[in-house]
Design a protein that fits this description.
The structure is a single chain. By secondary structure, the chain is α+β, with helices and mostly antiparallel strands. 39% of the residues lie in helices and 11% in strands. It contains eight helices and five strands; from the N terminus they run ααβββαββααααα. The strands form two sheets. A three-stranded antiparallel beta sheet has the order 1-2-3, covered by helices on one side. The chain has a two-stranded antiparallel ribbon with strand order 4-5. It is globular, with a radius of gyration of 23 Å. This is Tyr recombinase domain-containing protein. It comes from Molorchus minor. Keywords: DNA recombination, DNA-binding, Signal.
Length: 208
Amino acid sequence: MIKVRLLLLLVFWVCLILGIAGACRTDELVNLTVDDIEDVGSSLITKIPRIFVVTDVGNMLELFRKYLSLRPPHVKHKRLFLYYKAGKCSSQPVGKNTMGKIPTSYLKLPDVACYTGHCLRRSSATLLADAGVDITTIKRHAGWKSTTVAEGYVENSIENKTKIANQVLVGTTTSAITKTVNVSESNIPSNINFENCTNVTFNLNVNK
C-alpha cells in the first residue's frame, strides 16, 4: 500500500514536471512513452515529437528516476503513465480523462474544478512570457504555428504589464546598465545607493 501511495504521488509530480517543462497538452502526456525520454545524466531529453529538456533543478530528475524504477515488470506496453485503482497498479495506461484530473488531484486550490490538464500548458507559456522571452521562443517551445496565441500570453503577462506600468508611471526602464567601480584598500566607499531598480545583479571581482 505504501508503494502504491508513493507511485500515485510520483505520477502527480512527474506529470507536473513534464507538463510544465514541455508545455504539454493532455493527449501528449497520455501518449508519452518511456522510449520518448532519454536520460543523459544531467537532463532528460523528451520528444513528443517536438523536443524539450528537463534540467536538474531541485530534485526533478530524482523524482522521475524514482518513478521509473518502481514501474511494475509485468507491464508490456511502453506508455509512461499507468493507472492505479483500489490500491493496485495495473498495466492499463492512464487515459485522457484521468490525466486531465492529475494536475489538480493533490492541489488545495479554490475552484479546483476550473483547472484541467491544459493548465500545465498554459502555465508553461505564462512562465516564459513572465520571464521576458520573445514570441518566437514561446511559439517554438509550445509548438504553435501561429503567433496569435503566443502574443496573447505576452500581452497578458502580469510581469510585462508591471514593467510597462513602471515605465509609464515611474519612468524606470528595463535596460541593462553596467557600472564599474575600482576600489582599493585606501579608497573603500562607506555606502553605495541605488534607486528605482529592479532585478539588480551585482558582480564582485576581487583582485589580489
